C-alpha cells in the first residue's frame, strides 16, 4: 500500500505561506525529495509552537531575500537556525507608494507593469543573490527554508530556478508559484495600513501573484541569455558537475 504524500502546505504557526517543494517530478522522472527544500513568508512572527515545528521539520538553514529595512523591522534569530541574508530590495512597493505620495495616479494595470518590471530586475540585477542560494544548497543537504516577506515574488523566482535546475516541468513550476494565492494571508495590521493608502484593486495586484509576473522573468531570461539552461549554466554558475550534484542531493533515487 502506497503511503500518502506529505502535505505541501505546512501550517507553521506564525506563517501562512510555508510550503514544501517536494514531490514534483524532475530530471529523468525522479521526484524532488520531500522535507528538505521549503519556501515561506518571513519567519519573524513564528510562535514558540512554530519554532518548535520548524525544528521538528529538521530545518537548520534559512536564506532570507528581504531587504535591509524589512529585516530590521521584522528581525528573527531562532536557536539552531543559521540565517543567510541574500538581500533583494523590494522596489515595486516603494515605487508604488512614492508615486501616490507625490500626487500621481496608479491603476491596477500600472501595478501589473510594476510587478513585471520587478521580475525582470530579478533576472537582470539580482543574479548574485539567487546564485548564492544555489551555492548554499550545494554546500550540504541540511533542510533549508528560503523566504522573503510574503514568500511570493523573490521567493517565487527562487523556487522557479531551483525547480528548473532539478528538471521540473514549467507547468508544475507555475502551479507551485500560483499556490501563494491560495495560502498567503496578509497580516491584519499591514492590510489595514495599506488600505488607507491604496485602492483595493491595486493591493490585490501587489499582494497576489499572476502568471504574467513569472512569465516576464522567463521572457527576460530568453531574450538576454538565450534560454533557461544557458542562464543556469552561465549566470547561476551551475555547470554539469554542479547540476549533477544538485540533482543527486535533492531528487529521489
UniProtKB/TrEMBL annotation:
Coiled-coil regions listed in the entry: none
Protein's name according to its UniProt entry: Tyrosine-protein phosphatase
Keywords carried by this UniProt record: Hydrolase
Membrane spanning residue stretches: none
GO molecular function: protein tyrosine phosphatase activity
InterPro entries per UniProt: Prot-tyrosine_phosphatase-like, Tyr/Ser_Pase_IphP-type, Tyr_Pase_AS
Enzyme Commission numbers on file: 3.1.3.48
